[in-house]
């Protein structure tokens, strides 16, 4: 394996101090294939120290007023925003995503996560009911739970980590977070800003390392009563198993196999570019990406022709080039896995209409060992094929035809996942009808990825347990108590 000259070496952040680790793992730059960073390979000992620091900080942090915490979160948002370009460059290098995506989506959203929860924590009200005949008033009160364990994936590293840290600390919890071992750099950079923002030592602790060592140590720690996890369904099953003996509170945001349903009255001029974006944005490495496109038969051929032409316009290459639309996949192994799905589909008789590997000679010399793949469109795939059933999590999407509304609802629901769906039609009645019957935590009609963070986010079936959002995260990160007063 190639080692670049000056390796970046990360340290854990525990109790407000950077702490070196006794062993490290290599982290690759996906667009060059070089090791460029060393990430602590933390285990039980480091998690123990971080949980202790978080426990020690809890009494002070939880007793601050929501307004005091809100001001600190806003300050942290300002500091990240001030360094937006440095964060975006780091995220792009670490994850392989394009610099444009990091600049316009990942880091602005990380900033907004802190601002959003800084605001929403000021506006919650608890419940109150009266029982006049009994002379009683009931009300609820909410309090932070304690030390929250936060585990996040590699696809939207700082974006998803801050989507957990912000509500957890806004509610008064202290946290021990473990980012993905493949994308740890921006979390480490954020730690450098915490003191300046006024976050007291021990409120945010970050332990870097693998899921099986650092992640499981956190999940199994008796002093961590809640775990918020975003990642794969397989890992979630393991986390649920490991945390069961402690009866931990779990929030699980997992994978998807998201359908787009395109009726013959859809506005294709809007639908086609949006569906290309929903299939290939961030190399298809977003849990909400479309990977099964159902097109009504009458417009199937026209759709396919225009969709493939649009997909071919997306340029794949050096992620730091702002004219690129698609960067590198996260790892060599992941690229192999994604390409194997395409091979399996071909072996089953499906047609690959565009995409697959990038000719290394077409890439700049420094990127020829990077993990690149073109936006890939597959047609005539059977519903039972693994390409239509399993999450591929890469720049691959399948297009198939359907005839009736009833049929497409059944087929769209015919997978184990239920995260997100899109419906394209100009018939308002149909749009509502179909949205109601889809087994999906999120349904976008005539658009994709338009989010109001106030509202619940999350999946049904194997896509998760629980929801995130202003009210949902508040409820997850607080313990409720019902108090009855007889007067
Ligand atoms: P992953 O499950 O492999 O890893 C996620 C995190 O869990 C990482 O930090 C990893 O180190 C840790 N982990 C792994 N094994 C663990 C264990 N035994 N105990 C504790 N922690 C463990 O997922 P990934 O490959 O990093 O991310 C891709 C997956 O995440 C996809 O399935 C994608 O759909 C999903 N995802 C879901 C959402 C959502 O909001 N629903 C958002 C983004 C990604």
UniProtKB/TrEMBL annotation:
One of its GO terms (molecular function) is aminomuconate-semialdehyde dehydrogenase activity. Pathway: Amino-acid degradation; L-kynurenine degradation. Keywords: Cytoplasm, NAD, Oxidoreductase. Its EC number is 1.2.1.32. It is an enzyme of class 1 (oxidoreductase). InterPro entries: Ald_DH/histidinol_DH, Ald_DH_C, Ald_DH_CS_CYS, Ald_DH_CS_GLU, Ald_DH_N, Aldehyde_DH_dom. The keyword Isomerase does not apply. It catalyses: 2-aminomuconate 6-semialdehyde + NAD(+) + H2O = (2Z,4E)-2-aminomuconate + NADH + 2 H(+). It comes from the Eukaryota. CDD domains: ALDH_F8_HMSADH. One of its GO terms (biological process) is retinal metabolic process. Residues 23-483 form the Aldehyde dehydrogenase domain. It is found in: Cytoplasm. The active site is at 253. One of its GO terms (cellular component) is cytoplasm. Catalyzes the NAD-dependent oxidation of 2-aminomuconic semialdehyde of the kynurenine metabolic pathway in L-tryptophan degradation. Belongs to the aldehyde dehydrogenase family. This is 2-aminomuconic semialdehyde dehydrogenase. It comes from Taeniopygia guttata. The lineage of its organism: Eukaryota, Metazoa, Chordata, Craniata, Vertebrata. The gene is ALDH8A1.
């Amino acid at each position: 394996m190639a080692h670049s000259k000056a390796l970046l070496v990360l340290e854990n952040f525990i109790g407000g101090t950077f702490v070196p680790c006794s062993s490290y793992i290599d982290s690759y730059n996906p667009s060059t294939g070089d090791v460029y960073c060393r990430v602590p390979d933390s285990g039980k000992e480091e998690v123990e120290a971080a949980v202790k620091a978080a426990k020690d900080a809890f009494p002070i942090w939880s007793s601050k007023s929501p307004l005091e915490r809100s001001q600190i979160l806003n300050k942290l948002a300002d500091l990240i925003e001030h360094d937006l370009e440095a964060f975006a460059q780091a995220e792009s290098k670490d994850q392989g995503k394009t610099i444009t995506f990091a600049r316009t989506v990942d880091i602005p959203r990380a900033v907004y996560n802190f601002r959003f929860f800084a605001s929403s924590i000021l506006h919650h009200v608890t419940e109150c009911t009266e029982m006049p005949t009994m002379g009683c008033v009931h009300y609820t009160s909410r309090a932070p739970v304690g030390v929250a364990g936060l585990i996040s994936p590699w696809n939207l590293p700082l974006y998803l980590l801050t989507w957990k840290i912000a509500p957890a600390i806004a509610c008064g919890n202290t946290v021990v977070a473990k980012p993905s071992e493949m994308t740890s750099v921006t979390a480490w950079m954020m730690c450098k800003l915490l003191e300046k923002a006024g976050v007291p030592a021990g409120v945010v602790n970050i332990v870097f390392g693998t899921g099986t060592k650092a992640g499981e140590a956190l999940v199994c720690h008796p002093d961590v009563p809640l775990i918020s996890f975003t990642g794969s369904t397989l890992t979630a099953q393991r986390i649920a198993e490991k945390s069961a003996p402690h009866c931990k509170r779990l929030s699980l945001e997992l994978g998807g196999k998201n359908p787009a349903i395109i009726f013959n009255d859809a506005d294709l001029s809007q639908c086609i570019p949006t569906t290309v974006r929903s299939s290939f944005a961030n190399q298809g490495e977003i849990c909400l990406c479309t990977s099964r496109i159902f097109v009504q038969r009458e417009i199937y051929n026209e759709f396919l022709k225009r969709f493939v032409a649009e997909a071919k316009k997306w340029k794949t290459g050096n992620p730091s080039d702002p004219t690129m639309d698609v960067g590198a996949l996260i790892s060599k192994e992941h690229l192999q896995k994604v390409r194997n799905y395409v091979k399996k589909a071909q072996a089953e008789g499906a047609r690959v209409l565009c995409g697959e590997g990038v000719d290394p000679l077409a890439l700049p010399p420094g990127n020829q060992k990077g993990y690149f793949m073109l936006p890939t469109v597959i047609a005539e795939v059977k519903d039972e094929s693994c390409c239509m059933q399993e999450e591929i999590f890469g720049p691959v999407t399948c297009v198939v035809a359907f005839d009736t509304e009833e049929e497409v609802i059944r087929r769209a629901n015919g997978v184990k996942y239920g995260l997100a769906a899109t419906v394209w039609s100009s018939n308002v009645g149909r749009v509502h009808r179909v949205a109601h019957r889809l087994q999906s935590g999120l349904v976008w009609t005539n658009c994709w990825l338009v989010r109001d963070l106030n509202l619940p986010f999350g999946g049904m079936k194997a896509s998760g347990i629980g929801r995130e959002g202003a009210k949902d995260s508040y409820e997850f990160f607080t313990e409720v108590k019902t108090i009855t007063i007889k007067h």
